[in-house]
Structure prediction request, 994 residues.
Amino acid sequence: MTRGTLVYIIQRLAIIALTLLVVSFVVFVVVHALPGNAFISQRVHGRTLQLLLHEYGLDQPVLIQYWNFLKGAIHGNLGVSLYIRGEAVTPLVLRELSVSCELGGAALIVTIGLGMTFGVLAAIRQNTWVDYLLTSLAVIGYTVPSFVIAGLGIMIFADFLGSVTGGAFAYSPVWTGTYGTIGELWLPALSIGLYTSGQITRITRASMLEVIQQDYIRTARAKGLRERVITVRHALRNALVPVISILGTTIVGILVGVLVIENIFGIPGLGKEFVESILQHDYNVTVGVFTIFALLIGLSNLAVDLIYTVVDPRIRY
Amino acid sequence: MATTITPWSEYEGGTLARQQVGLWRDGLRRLRRNRLALAAIIYLGLLACVCLVSLFWTPYNPNLIGVCPTYALPGTPGHPLGCDDLGRDLLSRLMVGSQVSLAVGLITAAIVLVLGVSIGLLIGYLRGVADAIFALIINVFYGVPPLMIAIVLYVLLGPGLINIIIAIAASTWMDMARLVRGQTLSIREREYIEAARAGGARTGKILFGHIFPNALGPIIVQTTYVVPAAILTSAFFSFLGFGVPAPQADWGGMASEGFSPLLAGFDPYILLWPAIALSVTLLAFNFFGDGLRDAFDPRQRR
Amino acid sequence: MTGSMNQPVLEVKGLSTSFFTDDGEVKAVRDVSFDLAAGETLGIVGESGCGKSVTALSILGLVPRPGRVVGGEILFKGRDLLSIDREELRQIRGRDIAMIFQDPLSSLNPVHRIGAQVEEAMRAHDKIASADVRPRGLDLLRQVHVPDASRRVRNYPHQFSGGMRQRVMIAMGLSNRPEILIADEPTTALDVTVQAQILQLLRDLNRDLGTSIILITHNLGVVAGLCSRVVVMYAGEIVEQGTTEQIFDAPQHPYTWALLRSLPRVDADRHERLRSIEGLPPDLIAPPTGCKFNPRCPFRLERCFSEAPELKPVGDGQVAACWVTMKRAYAEMGAASLLDTRAGAASGVRPPLLPLPLAITRGPQPAGPEPLERE
Prediction:
């Protein structure tokens, strides 16, 4: 950890903080300009409405409201839910964050695992049937929407398998408890992961193909190294760099996938919360979700940039 | 007539000098040879026809309930694709659904093109404060997934096809602006730009007369990728419930409607047809984009 | 007097390698034969594209696709490298026969440390004991004069200069004490002063360790400085072979002769033009009939267009593939005072009429080769 790296990290963290500020502000303002509010949907009118609005501070000017929000946010208090009385936003959001991270993490494993394996295989067996098959899979992966894959998965594993095996192996798309089980996690994770892994496969393959042409591979072979060693320690290691560079976009893609898939499978994570909060006009929660997402993305981008320095020693901050 | 008998070439890495062909002609020729891209173009052409036709005629009224027995299977006479849970003919709905997808895709791409190019050109050319502001905006926008931005904007604007388009365009124009900015930054350093400036050309003329035509290649390719991205986003929209208001049929909405019957154990066709339509259309646009990109890539001279 | 001491450590017999491209079979190496004795330094000389690098790659089975060896034998201590299995060949690479390449920056893996790469060369084989690998690695770097070796061993390739990198490559190559070191243009990418140092290093290593060296280069000066014997290649074939003295003092093939003449000389008259060889190397897919040098040779005869000459002795151990040879060129064609070196200029022989299909124009015409008049 050099001094330069430390300075870089601090700079990035500052930018993240700034981004959070801007994002939360913009969302706050936009969200408060939205028609209707949480209480309307609960059919509260008249005087009760006024009382409630006052209690929640919603009758004050937007900027004052934001200032209050900010003061609380610095201490970790993101306000209270308007829809569910008394529920504080922060613990709610954090709990759902962990669920989304579980799903997102599983999807990330699928993405990188499948994506890189396919990419490497396709590259070393270039122009054979293996290559064509894997590349086609990758293309299908990143073109077909994740809900289609989810739907197909349900079709195959729930209906088809269920009817064929007389209900013995039926897969049911439910989610037990907060964190579900592995048996319930794999299809949602796969639906998200297949999409993003397609891009990883493509980049890995292209990068490997280029790396294989390099002179140092020839040197490695001239040294008498085994093929497996050459492929992994020399080729793949260098091919990683472009893959890392799209890791940031990939993570955003996973987050988008999480958003959609949670709503399909009823998984109680941030994505589902986001949609619900908008539909229920529970805007405090919306702001909270947005802020957490922004924080997540900022931190993961920073992590990716730091991983860069480990993978490619030529890059130093 | 004198001719030489010494053919010459240098074999070092296999390069044999070839006749120089213009970029466009060469590109067009390579595009024609790319069979995937050709298939994609044909499909898209057919899709466009279906869409146009559906504006005037469909086998049945797509929104009319009870036209056929609910959950009718494909192959039922008169309903080759079956019917949905409300007894609406799926084929008609599928045809009409193409309107939304194509409209969203193409119009969004148009907006992104115009917006992204103008802003990108200006930022890239003028730099300075504008560039700093741009960088700030970009950083903020990139901190949040575009889908979320689009959803919030859409809720703000209210329901309607136009608003969907605006919301999606607003959440994705930055990529194009970034691309154009990058191209502008590199092109503006070239000598003919300096020559134009020395000759007294106005900024606008330089931007659109010189820089823009030279950046055209990547811009076109990027635009062809915006279309499927927009279609995908609008499909997600409809799927999550933010879509075009009923009863207008659209593929995402149809897929969403098809999920509950699927989970309840009914046949999957209500989900299947729009899913296939979406997937194939997206694939087609992507292959087309890939074909364009490969065809005009100056590094792959053959 | 043939004991194992005198048996050549490498015997290349009739090696042919081709590249099978979409445009046809490129005959990059044709029927190349030479021997390498233990402790000898052999130079392979020729211009770009003449097949010298491909020859070297063929020895170790490193010819990239779409190329492959199509004929001949390569006997390393009696074993034919072209017929052993992949695993045996892998073991020979780096352990018994090592190869270093032209551009040391691109030839070293940028993401691994120098020390690790040198050690890897040893760990891949079992000639050096595991415990000795690390100290020997350091030792090797010192032997090749990398300063501050113990610290620099943890550096990455991009932190070294070009000359240093090439030294590291040499260290890597010698790490398993190979019998043969093949150096493919080791100094081409380096500054002139560094070139001299590298060559000196190779000379010392050859003398001290007894490693045979095959040096591939297009630079005759380099050959003169290091090699005891020289092989001259043109268009995939050997056109002359002999000791360095023979080649430099009395080259017999017109190509060798022209090459030597083309070297700029410090003692030349300031106004003298540089004497290059007119024309370009031939297309290896459809080479000229007869001697491949005939489109550029000032001394060609009628026979040169129809029959390809074979290597014949022209001196004590010196061989050349030419119907004319410089002896005759000096005697009969006034080669000593030749000013016009265009094809056929000295002998006055023009190419024979050929049927129409061969009269094809491909690309820009080089200035010089005579046009074929057709009625």
